[in-house]
Recover the amino acids of this structure.
């Protein structure tokens, strides 16, 4: 097997985040549940955007955020996702390439407008996401080049992209290519509503041995297994995957590999500003450590450091020097 050119190749929804402050009363007036992720159509996106406070446009998308985090930690990252050749699409392309990530799919004029997520942040730093997926859901299977997939040590996929048939076919093709090349496949469950729709599919991927590293948060691992108890949920999944990583917000995170269970506390922060991207950046840290051959504890620590940085400012991409913050782990 040849040495990979990329540490991690991420595939996911290419989304521009529009982030604005909001009150609990505003959420209630719009019938929005705090902390939820809601899929909306183009008409609702225009309506809600017109009602929001002034916002900041920041490139996001779960797997794209993870790719940016890996690059910020000194890793070699690539990203596959679809955007339109419109203003937001050009913003997305510029931002991810400026972050040091190889953007491997060209913008197209033959798809819907570029995806955007209208993120309302309440004073308690909870984010409520309202997402128009547009072009992101039109990633074609022919965007996947087997040689490119095989040129990355780890393939990382986001569960959010499993919904439409085209991107799902692209992800299945990528999994096959990675496994044929002897590379690792990492997968994040993304959200409870995704699990509710595709629990059978996700469990099949796990049971068939197609996932090497599975990422979830506490609610997601419970949703996947149907277990109310956290430890029982972890015990139900851990024997089925080589590495299981579960985040628990302020309670830290755990990882299980070959029966060894490592735990890591959350990093201390000065101020909680916006939880958008916390899981994405945790995955970035863990994958960056994995690509370097670090042990579970060190990988968890990198994840905790990256997640702590991103929740102390608006936006889901790192702003501080992550390599400096993590210098003791990366040394």
């Amino acid at each position: 097997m040849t040495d990979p050119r990329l540490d991690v190749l991420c595939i996911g929804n290419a989304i521009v985040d529009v982030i604005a402050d909001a009150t609990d009363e505003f959420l209630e007036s719009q019938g929005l549940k705090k902390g939820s992720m809601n899929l909306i159509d183009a008409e609702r996106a225009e309506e809600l955007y017109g009602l929001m406070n002034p916002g900041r446009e920041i490139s996001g998308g779960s797997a794209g955020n993870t790719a940016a985090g890996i690059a910020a930690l000194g890793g070699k990252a690539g990203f596959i996702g679809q955007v339109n050749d419109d203003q937001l699409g050009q913003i997305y392309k510029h931002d991810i390439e400026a972050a040091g990530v190889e953007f491997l799919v060209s913008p197209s004029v033959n798809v819907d407008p570029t995806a955007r997520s209208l993120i309302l942040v309440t004073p308690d730093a909870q984010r409520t996401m309202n997402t128009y997926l547009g072009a992101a859901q039109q990633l074609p299977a022919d965007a996947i080049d087997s040689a490119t997939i095989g040129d990355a040590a780890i393939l990382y996929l986001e569960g959010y992209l499993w919904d439409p048939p085209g991107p799902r076919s692209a992800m299945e093709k990528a999994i096959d290519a990675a496994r044929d090349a002897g590379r690792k496949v990492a997968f994040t469950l993304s959200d409870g509503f995704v699990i509710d729709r595709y629990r059978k599919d996700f469990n099949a991927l796990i049971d068939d041995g197609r996932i090497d590293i599975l990422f979830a948060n506490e609610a997601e691992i419970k949703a996947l297994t149907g277990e109310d108890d956290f430890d029982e949920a972890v015990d139900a999944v851990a024997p089925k995957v080589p590495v299981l990583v579960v985040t628990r917000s302020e309670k830290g995170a755990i990882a299980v590999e070959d029966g060894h269970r490592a735990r890591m506390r959350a990093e201390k922060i000065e101020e909680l500003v916006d939880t958008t991207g916390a899981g994405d950046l945790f995955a970035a840290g863990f994958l960056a450590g994995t690509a370097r051959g670090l042990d579970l504890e060190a990988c968890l620590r990198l994840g905790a450091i990256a997640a702590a940085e991103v929740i102390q400012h608006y936006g889901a991409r790192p702003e501080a020097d992550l390599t400096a913050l993590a210098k003791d782990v990366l040394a």
User: Anything to note?
Assistant: The first strand starts at residue 6 and ends at 11. The mean pLDDT is 95.
